[in-house]
Amino acid sequence: MPRFIPEPYRIKMVEPIKMTTRKEREDYLKEAEYNMFRLRGEDVYVDTLTDSGTNAMSDAQWSAMMIGDEAYAGGKSYYKLLDACRDIFGYEFTQPVHQGRAAEKVLMPIFLHKGNYAIANLFFDTTRAHVEIAGARCLEACNPEAQDSQLRAPFKGNMDIAQLERHILDRGAENIGMVVMTITNNSAGGQPVSLQNMRETAAICKKFKIHLNIDAARFAENAMFVKQREPACKDMSVKEITRAFFALADTYTMSAKKDTIVNMGGLLGVKDGKAPYILKIKANCISYEGFYTYGGLTGRDLEALRVGLYEGLDENWLRYRLGTMDYMGTRLDEMGIPYQSPAGGHGIFLDAARFYPHIPYYEFPGQVLAVELYKECGLRTCDIGSFMMGNDPDTGEQIKSLNEFTRLAIARRVYTQSHYDMVLDGIKAVWDNRNNIKHGYRITWEPPILRHFQASLAPVDA
Ligand code: F0G
Asked: How do residues 222-278 score in pLDDT, each as one tens digit?
């Protein structure tokens, strides 16, 4: 049995969980038309649908909320947050927003429009959607190592530098509105990006004069991976690595609902406090989010976010966090169960295409596995594969994802070691039963954008 790192926190408040039977879970699934987002949270035993906004705040965060300044404009909590972001990221301007996609909505139309492109080491779903809503198109340049779940490499999330340059030369540098570096690379399995790769990406952006944005939702997990895996950085603190990483970009958009350990919040940072587009950011924010010193959040939210930024960078916390994923990965290795390896920073991405090689991408193997796991043990996961990718915005054809993953995204400071062990037992049972699952799912209704959140599905053999 591999060793696990014990929780570096103790429990002060508990939330009871409802226990359900397999029959009940089968009924709930039917009612939800096999869409995991349409299950009720109370019908789930361990919820790994997302690590976003599902975190438990600390006593320090809750107490900081009491001193939130609720001034409409120029509140104290805003200026304290600005100082924290200067200290951690070295960025002169920070725009709070209500969550990551709000930062995308505010920033992207300033750089993207019909006819131009954004290039990323992979876009997450809402980021892809905001590129397309701005009228632009997405191009991807992901490290090819990420496509082989069985290949163990330290930085599978990296930008494919040669591919990035090819895209720029093919479309013309003047038609690339923005390069996005997603850390960690969520769609590739929470895989990290090295500081060296960030340097190379920044050099290309500088050479072609292209704006470089970091999609920074999981910046702290990424920095801890860099410390553990990039020999040149082993003696740097996670905070120093973060500083070095952000110094290479122009802006960042951040969902603070992940590594910043709050339930709601986001940030948009600009390195150069004199950048002319700050005025546009403020104007967009005032229209969509609220005045720029609160950006859709309350003063107390800003306080919790500021404290969470520092707690998220705590190295004991991060060692435990990555240790949990490593423990789960090692146990899966022992059972011979395929996942994107090595384990990512925020969860385990099971390789559903290897569970069900006979189920084609348009019957959504990642979704099949999600359904089976819920039936087996009340574990809620989600498809990070063709079901999530959706249809090509120009041709309407189903996109074939590079990988068919079923993601277990682990909420921060919420579950305990015994929950993880229960989950591993559930995965094993579903793995042992894999050959009895013959067919996948078809979509019976879908909205035009971000369809996976709402679509209805039905079993293909029904
Ligand atoms: N960028 C990345 C890399 C993300 O993972 C997410 C959200 C966002 C941007 C958008 O942030 O949700 O605060 O608006 N990812 C969540 C997930 C939802 O489940 O991975 P948001």
From this structure: 999 999 999 999 999 999 999 999 999 999 999 999 999 999 999 999 999 999 999
How much distance in Å is there from the Cα of 434 to the middle of ligand 1? 30
C-alpha to C-alpha distance for 334 and 75, rounded to whole angstroms: 53
Same domain (yes/no): 65, 91? yes
Q: Where are the alpha helices (DSSP H) in 112-174?
A: 125-133, 161-171
In tens, the pLDDT along 7-29 reads: 999 999 999 999 999 999 999 99
Residue 188 beta carbon below 6 angstroms from any ligand 1 atom = no
Q: Is the CB of 426 under 6 A from ligand 1?
A: no
Pairing assessment for the beta strands 212-215 and 251-255 based on DSSP bridges: parallel
Q: Which residues are marked as active site? A: 72, 124-125, 215, 217, 258, 452
**Domain that residue 411 falls in:** 22-51+314-459
Contact present, 123 and 142 (Cβ < 8 Å): no
Q: Whose CA is nearest to atom 11 of ligand 1?
A: 100
Query: Which residue in the block uniquely carries the two structure tokens 């966090």?
Result: 321
Read off φ and ψ for residue 68, nearest 5 degrees: -60, 135
Cβ of 321 below 6 Å from ligand 1: no
CB of 124 sitting under 6 A from ligand 1? yes
Q: Cβ of 113: how many Cβ atoms within 10 Å?
A: 12
* Residue 7 within any structural domain of the chain: no
- Our count of domains for the chain comes to 2
CATH number of the structural domain spanning residue 355: 3.90.1150.10
